[in-house]
Specification:
Rossmann fold, alpha/beta, five-stranded parallel β-sheet, five-stranded mixed β-sheet, 19 helices, 481 residues, single chain
Length: 481
């Protein structure tokens, strides 16, 4: 697959390099994002297009500081940066201050790019690395036309790099690289809107999976073919991400797997992730969930949205590819490894419709938020779109558009998502009409009804009560503004 999307990110990097060239002084940028999201590919694409000397160093997990410095110097000598590679010393004693001095000594007078990839591994191996980087930047590099790009997949460690109590505080801008969006997925694979949304849910917008996806292939056809390959990226990418983030089968991983398996409430997660001694106590589970949401960013927490506070909070796996792996593909992978591709695909096919029906909801909510922000909805004050439920989950409303969340002043729309082969029919409409008035803040005649459906409206459903009617094209279009 050729390089797709990332126009905004490439423009941001180009802008910083132009600023460095114009001012003659350095700039640093810390770029973080989950594994396989395409950080290295983006920066390599930028370096290739920039037409300036650069060095691209990728750290190795578990390497000693001596080995890391030696690898850095080797990469520096072989890069386009030094005019004379012989001026770059060999590995030597393996100290980062010496390595950064060697870098500064061979910098040309023209703008250059210096890339350090997997930076958290360097900080993990050497407690003095952050300080050495800060000193080198302040004394040797920042006054030269250097664009320093610091890349990392450990989101919390990358945030800590520039935190107020760390040496590099105030020295680098921060950029979070998310997955490709559904419109970019559609462009990459040459798919129509409905198939592109399916593909996006399967791959999570991760280029590492999209590169293995044949052009124009719908999601289930792709999954059927991949079920014949135990080394397929559709299995390997989420598996490696899981292993990297949670190398030991500890309590945090059991909690993640419980959520991935379909448990959404605090009580159900506690029961499933508990051991022989029973459910995980609330005093232990709450900090674990907070860590998985706020630090690891592997879970998302959804609260009911309305004009009054509501409970309970619901949890889901943030990345749809990892969510699919935990719910469906891991079981299929076991069949594939046993040489049973047909059984693996039958498992996928059997669980697909129900999994997709819930997995698409966060995507639809995000699309509506984007559309509202662009003025593409009838209201100019919708800032958040969530869902609403009570403690009994009766009803559970898919869409609630409000002026702020989770406790709103105004509820502008209440709606339903039906992402099935059949159309949104009169029974679905009756369910929505019954559920909508139960949402606190719903006002008859003021709050609109919204329907987002894969297969359109049935012929016996009147359109008059529906204020927003969306199909797959509208969902994908929200990312094109």
């Amino acid at each position: 697959m050729s390089f797709v999307g990332r126009r905004l990110e490439l423009a941001l990097l180009t802008k910083r390099l132009e600023r460095v060239a114009a001012s003659g002084v350095g700039a640093a940028l810390a770029l973080r994002g989950r594994r396989q999201v395409g950080k290295s590919r983006l920066v390599q694409e930028f370096c290739d297009a920039a037409a300036v000397p650069y060095v691209f160093f990728t750290a190795t997990k578990g390497a000693s500081p001596v080995e890391a410095v030696s690898d850095f110097l080797t990469e520096l000598a072989e890069s386009s940066l030094p005019a004379d590679p012989e001026l770059v010393p060999s590995g030597g004693a393996g100290k980062w201050p010496d390595a950064f001095r060697a870098l500064a000594a061979v910098l040309p007078d023209r703008p250059v790019v210096v890339v350090i990839d997997e930076l958290p591994w360097l900080a993990e191996q050497d407690g003095l690395f952050d300080g050495a980087l800060q000193t080198a930047w302040d004394r040797l590099l920042s006054k030269r036309p250097v664009l320093l790009l610091l890349l990392g997949s450990d989101l919390h460690m990358m945030e800590r790099l520039t935190a107020y109590d760390r040496p590099f505080y105030g020295r680098a801008d921060n950029l979070v690289l998310g997955p490709l969006d559904p419109a970019e997925t559609a462009d990459a694979l040459g798919l129509g809107a409905a198939d592109a949304i399916d593909a996006h849910l399967v791959c999570g917008g991760l280029p590492g999976i999209l590169r293995a996806w044949p052009h124009g292939t719908p999601a289930l056809s792709f999954l059927r073919d991949e079920c014949a390959d135990p080394a397929s990226p559709v299995f390997g990418v989420p598996e490696s991400s899981l292993s990297a983030e949670f190398p030991a089968p500890d309590q945090a991983r059991r909690v993640l797997e419980a959520v991935g398996g379909g448990d959404r409430t605090h009580a159900n997660i506690a029961a499933t992730a508990g051991g022989r001694g029973g459910a995980i106590p609330s005093g232990s589970l709450s900090p674990l969930l907070r860590r998985l949401v706020e630090e690891k960013r592997v879970l998302a927490m959804d609260e009911p949205v309305s004009t009054t506070p509501g409970k309970p909070a619901l949890y889901r796996v943030q990345d749809s590819n990892l969510r699919l792996y935990l719910a469906v593909l891991r079981g299929a992978q076991e069949q594939v490894r046993r040489g049973r591709p047909e059984a693996a695909y039958r498992l996928v096919e059997r669980r697909w419709a129900a999994w997709r029906g819930r997995a698409v909801e966060p995507l639809v909510r995000e699309a509506l938020e984007l559309a509202a922000g662009e003025g593409a909805l009838p209201w100019d004050d919708i800032e958040a779109v969530g869902g609403w439920w009570n403690r009994r989950f009766d009803p559970e409303v898919d869409l609630v558009g409000v002026d702020r969340a989770p406790v709103a002043r105004h509820v502008r729309l209440v709606g339903s998502v039906k992402w099935l082969a059949g159309p949104f029919d009169r029974h679905d409409m009756a369910d929505l009409a019954t559920a909508a008035p139960q949402v606190p803040g719903f006002t008859v005649g003021s709050t609109a009804l919204a329907v987002v459906t894969l297969s359109g409206l049935a012929s016996d459903v009147p359109t008059e009560p529906i204020g927003v009617l969306w199909g797959p094209d509208d969902v994908v279009e929200a990312w094109k503004h």
